[in-house]
# Entry
Amino acid sequence: MAVMAVMTVGLGARVEAGAGASSSSLWEAWPHTVPVPPFALKHEGMRAQLAAILARHEGLFTIAEEGASAEGRRIPLVVLGNGPTTVLLWSQMHGDEPTATSALLDVLEHLGRTRKTPETERLLSRLRLAIVPMLNPDGTERTRRTNAQGIDINRDALRLETPEGRFLKSVRDRLKPSIGYNLHNHTAGLTAGRQGPQVAISLLSVPYDEADTENEGRLVTKRLAVLVRRLLEPYAKNRVGRYDMDYTARAFGDSMTRWGTATLLIESGGFFGPDEASTLVRLNFVALLGTLHALADGSLAAVDARDYDAIPLNTRDRLFDLLLRNARVVSGAGLPPYRADVGMNLPPARAGFPGSSGRGSRGGVLELGDLTDFLGKTEIDLSGRLLVVAPPGGDEGWKRTLLGLVSRGRATAAGVLTLSEAELSAEAKAWLGNAPALAPGYGGDFLVLQPEDEGRFRVERRISPVEP
Ligand SMILES: [Zn+2]
# Structure
């Protein structure tokens, strides 16, 4: 009994220590191989990076073969390691989803730098890695999802009408990998569950049938997902989510799993802040190498697959680019001011990471009312202020309106409004003219008014959901 306990504790401690240590050491070792942002790395740049890595680390990998895209661009298959377990990793089958491509180049660079260490020697002696860093170069050149035929390669696993899909299938059939990594990006607008923050990384142990049957391969990909979450927790706390199972026979991940290559889906979401794009690459790097090491050293077997169900489900429509809280709103409909939170999206260039910004890609108000349970990437508390629809025409429009107010004695020359709330409401209705009042879809500007004394309001700032 005592011996059993010691063994259990010992095993658990070793796995925890191993995973934790490798997580921080991998985070620190991130080589940041690609000097340009992921979206700027196109087909020629990717091939140049592979050549440069091989020049720095001679003999590290071979380009075992090259497929050809619909427009004839070459699709390198990188192979390294000589272990009995083959792992196939492919990225950017959607041309506008580039994060993992840069991370895979980082993985190669790191394996080159550390190839004489026991950890990397073990990895390369126990695994054979087959890597397709950019499956859809034609879509990548256009920064779009589909290939040059306009087909979503990830829905072509059954018909195989795309040369890129046929290439991926042929690689699978020849190498017979037991494990697959299907690497994507998704919208930056998901949250981890109904309580959690913005999702940085999403996972799915990809099913192979409608019944979500759990076989040995599914257990492996569930363990991999659990381990990814654990590895990333120090750097993306509570920001790892998972997809609900949704079997799609024509999708590649599902078909791969059905064909015998148990596939883990890893998708990059968003990480709002100044280093968003590179942080997502770095998280991918830690997730990929950390799990590959655990596959190689056997520690993955000690991860409890049941913890997979505890990964929060991805949740849509909870995250706004900008959330104004607790405003008293003057909507332009001529109504008395009322309290509301206002959630809006900004155009992609202002929203941060240049991916899809969730609910629509145009800026504007999405919802207003009680948004207590929602999140904003940026939040502004407007308690005690009035949020007023602005006259059309930007700053110039406001200047003209203000001159009119001054001439009628409703504002001072210094720009302080001198009127009651009821009068303000009527003025706002008038200065909107034919422009629509505040409601979902409103794309105009707002003025934030700070009440001073009774019947006096100072204009504190302008908020624009569409203008830079
Ligand atoms: Zn995708």
Remarks:
- Residues 2-29 form the longest helix (28 residues).
- Confidence is low (pLDDT under 50) at residues 1-21, 355-359.
